[in-house]
Design goal:
The chain is of the alpha/beta class. It is 27% helix and 29% strand. It has six helices and twelve strands. The longest helix is centred in the C-terminal third of the chain and has 15 residues. The radius of gyration is 18 Å and the shape is globular. The protein starts with 13 loop residues before the first strand and ends with a helix. 39% of the residues are buried. Bound molecules: cytidine-5'-triphosphate (CTP) and calcium ion. The site of cytidine-5'-triphosphate has 14 residues, from helix 4 and strand 9.
Length: 228
């Protein structure tokens, strides 16, 4: 019910949210991808808009519809997402990197379809690391801007999960990190989520579980009350 009585605490706030999963092209018909559905990022966009924020959603292959009446910029690869975020972030009060960014991309994209007869019985792909978009956004942060990252981890133990999150936020330099557990059955396609929000010191500032829209609202509560 709390989700229905939308407050207007984000009026005047411009929020840029990336969602979905990037695809790294191999040849004209194939890509390397991941299992992100985009549901949590879309829920964040929806919840932020209903609290009065001006939202831009940077969408990488969502498996769900983007909310109506929200600005949507479509991207495909990590390099596309990097360019879109660099363009959108400087005018944002809050930047949220909910997208699952491919860590590596093929060094070369074959101009034509890769053929079995040519490749043989095994195929080795050379991959190169993609730019760390969140780290770059954090380093380029304007005064007063809030940058939030996500960390999807498969670690089953909660203390170890939080420890991974603490190490990750220290590496990334963002203001908050939303840590969630993912696995074959948890996280991605699900309509529910369980998250722990860490601040830059590694302290737990919020924990939430339930529908992705209610989790989105608890993450937005952190922003609404942030001293940053
Ligand atoms: N991220 C990013 N650019 C990348 C990789 C990740 O901006 N090239 C962002 C994600 O959108 C997310 C955060 O960084 O907000 C953490 O992503 P994650 O994959 O958990 O962290 P990595 O640094 O890639 O570490 P690893 O995958 O090895 O755990
Ligand atoms: Ca990664």
């Amino acid at each position: 019910l709390a989700e229905l009585s939308a407050s207007a605490d984000l009026v005047g706030t411009r929020i840029v949210i990336s969602a979905g999963g990037t695809r790294e092209p191999l040849d004209p018909v194939r890509y390397l991808g991941n299992r992100s559905s985009g549901k949590q990022g879309v829920a964040l966009a929806q919840a932020a808009a209903s609290r009065g924020a001006q939202v831009t959603l940077i969408a990488a292959h969502l498996e769900v519809d983007a909310p109506a009446n929200i600005d949507v910029v479509r991207v495909s690869s990590a390099l596309d997402l990097d360019a879109a975020m660099r363009e959108q972030a400087p005018t944002a009060d809050v930047v949220i990197m909910a997208a699952a960014v491919a860590d590596y991309r093929p060094v070369t994209v074959a101009p034509g379809k890769i053929k079995k007869e040519v490749a043989g019985d095994t195929l080795t792909l050379d991959l190169v690391k993609n730019p760390d978009i969140l780290a770059a956004l954090s380093a380029a942060k304007a005064p007063g801007q809030i940058v939030i990252g996500f960390a999807a981890e498969t670690e089953p133990d909660t203390d170890a999960l939080v420890a991974l999150g603490r190490a990750k936020i220290a590496r990334k330099g963002c203001d908050y990190l939303v840590v969630n557990r993912v696995g074959w059955t948890e996280g991605f396609a699900s309509d529910d989520n369980v998250v722990i929000v860490l601040d830059a010191t590694g302290a737990i500032v919020n924990e939430a579980s339930g529908s992705k829209i209610s989790v989105a609202n608890r993450i937005l509560d952190v922003i609404a009350h942030s001293p940053v």
